[in-house]
Design brief:
This protein is mainly β. The chain is built from 1 helix and 30 strands. The strands form 7 sheets. Strands 1-23-22-21-20 form a 5-stranded mixed β-sheet, with no helix packed on it. The chain has a 5-stranded mixed β-sheet with strand order 2-27-26-25-24, with no helix packed on it. The radius of gyration is 19 Å and the shape is globular.
Length: about 350
């Protein structure tokens, strides 16, 4: 099935208005970094969540509170770092929240992987409203969402769907194509572009809402088992590839670079890109928080992650880094990591 959204992607590509991002990737240079000594970050602050919370999405709201998706509980959670209070907001029976963003009106938006809806939560009173999908659509397996500069919600469905919802008009536009299979991860760039990863089809999708441009890039074969993505201040896209034990950078126009982790037991999962250009990621295999300095091709262990399981979410708080551990039902906040020069 092809809807109007994907039709516009095909039309834009046919007109030749887009960079040549859909070409096969060029030969890659693989660089193996050397481990460095452990850096002490001080004592982290742990927020122990309810049993079976399974936090798998994190955002910091404009008021400084931290929000997470409590997947198994079917709720959104809010952490007040000042009072250390954790508040849960149930989304309804059978709910499975998966991705979060803060809207311009300060409400919290979440995709629901089980109920096929978008949730809008008003933090002031806890009121939850739902944005349903068009009635003629099947189950989309909603998995991530982002906002563009106009306040439109862009969302993905892992079963091969890409869509947008405009709160100003109430219209929802959803399309499907085989290139969108496994569309789960998303990230936003400083320039306004929105990126998605389609794991099953091995492609990365870029949306430029301001210019009505859509294109895709082939993910190189050395990036297997992608678990996280983030965009640097300069617009480069970074991916963590757990199965191939690499970090992968995409700089545009089929320009890829891979950095192989130096530890054979590593399993890179959630990652962020800091303002200084360094990459911080969770190595679930070694239970370490690790920093990668691209300019030096160097990995550094920063801290222990403690006992736990899958780590799908991490955010930069400005004065620290928050890590959500699904296996431990815990959100751990590490003190600030001093910036480095690359």
């Amino acid at each position: 099935m092809k809807g109007p959204l994907f039709a516009s992607i095909l039309a834009a590509t046919a007109l030749g208005a887009l960079p040549a991002l859909s070409q096969a990737p060029k030969p890659q240079v693989q660089r193996v970094a050397q481990p460095a000594t452990l850096s002490s970050l001080g004592t982290p602050v742990d927020f122990e969540l309810r049993v079976a919370s399974q936090p798998l999405a994190l955002i910091q709201a404009s008021d400084g509170t931290i929000w997470f998706a409590a997947y198994t509980l079917g709720a959104l959670g809010r952490i007040d770092r000042t009072t250390r209070e954790i508040t849960y907001f149930p989304l309804g029976t059978g709910s499975r929240p998966y991705g979060l963003v803060e809207a311009p009106d300060k409400s919290i938006l979440a995709v629901d992987r089980a109920l096929n809806v978008l949730h809008r939560l008003a933090p002031a009173n806890g009121e939850v409203t739902r944005i349903g999908m068009p009635a003629d659509l099947p189950f989309l397996d909603l998995s991530s969402l982002r906002l563009d500069s106009e306040g439109r919600i862009w969302f993905s469905g892992a079963s091969g769907w890409l869509g947008s919802h405009d709160p100003r008009t109430g219209t929802t536009d959803v399309s499907s194509h085989e290139d969108l299979q496994g569309l789960t991860l998303s990230a936003a760039s400083p320039t306004g572009s929105i990126w998605f990863v389609a794991g099953k089809s091995g492609r990365m999708i870029r949306i430029d809402p301001a210019r009505s441009r859509f294109d895709s890039a082939v993910i190189p074969p050395e990036a297997q088992g992608i678990r996280s993505m983030a965009v640097s201040p300069s617009g480069e896209v970074w991916l963590s590839a757990m199965k191939s034990q690499t970090l992968v950078r995409y700089a545009g126009r089929a320009a890829w670079m891979t950095a192989k982790l130096p530890w054979p037991e590593s399993r890179p999962q959630a990652l962020i890109v800091r303002q200084d250009g360094t990459i911080v990621f969770a190595d679930a295999g070694r239970r370490k928080l690790v920093r990668y300095r691209p300019g030096f091709d160097r990995f550094e262990d920063l801290a222990d992650l403690g006992a736990g399981g899958a780590i799908k979410a991490m955010i930069d708080l400005g004065d620290g880094i928050a890590v959500a551990d699904m296996g431990a039902d815990r959100i751990r906040i590490y003190p600030d990591i001093p910036p480095t020069q690359n």
